[in-house]
Amino acid sequence: MIKIEKLTKSYPGASSPALNNVSLTIPQGEIFGILGRSGAGKSTLLRSLNLLERPSSGHIWIDGQDITALAPGQLRRQRQQMGMIFQHFNLLHSRTVAENIQLSLDIAGIPAARRRLRVVQLLERVGLADKANAWPSQLSGGQKQRVGIARALAAEPRYLLCDEATSALDPETTLAILDLLVELQQDLAITVVVITHDMAVVKRVCHGAALLDKGELIESGSLANIMANPRSSLRQLLIEDGETERIFMQKYSVGQTKCVA
Ligand code: ADP
Ligand code: MG
To answer: Which atom number of ligand 1 is nearest to the Cα of residue 45?
Structure first.
């Protein structure tokens, strides 16, 4: 479980904080969405979860441990619990797919003798068994993101942090990657935190969500509770996004609510 307590982050020289007194709980074993406009503080929040950004104040508890209080050695181990994937995949273009993954295994301290087998297993896991020797430039966007996911899973993390992981992909590829995330969450019992500005992503895979605006937490909760609350801003955003509205409303038993097409 991730428990964020009164988290504030001010970047030097900025006129207002990127995150302002944000408290939020992300339940274990779920897919949790963090929504908000560009500049809302989503990436800052996600990067705080492995202390790539140091909070100005506040605490982050991961599995009962306050990570803001960890010594450097402990923090390195803690970071291995947090796999991360990105919008633009961040692959090394001068290395093959297998080498990209191998590097992460190396960093995670997996002994050399076990790396080759682990690469094969990870590539199978993400559906890229035949691409070990391909170069990133030879892959589609969806395939690149699959490599990103394989790499993020190298250290067998308990959490997968996804920063706009499907935002550079077409709708069909987005669905395939989302299905993969659901599969991983279920098979590996990991917790997945998904940053997105795409309501369709939330509707498709999230059990819970939070809305950020200008560094403030507007609301958070399970999708069931969000959908049951007529005054919820998140509910409003979700139902205004028309395309899959009917199915979504049925899923959450909202009944014959007016159609905001
Ligand atoms: P989002 O991911 O929701 O678009 P970010 O967390 O990237 O938002 O940014 C939140 C705010 O913090 C923005 O105003 C952004 O300009 C600012 N910001 C983000 N990263 C930095 C940084 N490294 N240095 C200074 N300001 C930053
Ligand atoms: Mg961002």
So the answer is: 6
SS3 165: coil
Q: Could you tell me if 97 and 133 are in contact, meaning their C-beta atoms sit under 8 angstroms apart?
A: yes
Task: Return d(Cα 234, Cα 221) in angstroms, integer.
Answer: 10
Measured in Å, residue 124 CA sits from the centre of ligand 1 at 36
What are the tens digits of pLDDT across the range 140-192? 999 999 999 999 999 999 999 999 999 999 999 999 999 999 999 999 999 99
Q: Which ligand is nearest to the CA of 41?
A: 1
Task: Please write down the HEC assignment for all residues of 177-232.
Answer: HHHHHHHHHHHHCCEEEEEECCHHHHHHHCCEEEEEECCEEEEEEEHHHHHHCCCC
Strand 216-222, strand 208-213: pairing: antiparallel
Per residue in 64-111, pLDDT (tens digit) is: 999 999 998 899 889 999 999 999 999 999 999 999 999 999 988 889
Residue 203 is which amino acid?
Answer: K
Judged by DSSP in three states, 161 sits in: strand
Q: Which ligand is nearest to the CA of 39?
A: 1
| Cα radius of gyration (the chain) | 19
Q: Spell out a b/e string for 93-122, using b for 16 or more CB atoms within 10 Å of the CB, else e.
A: eeebbbebbbebbeebebeeeebeebbeeb
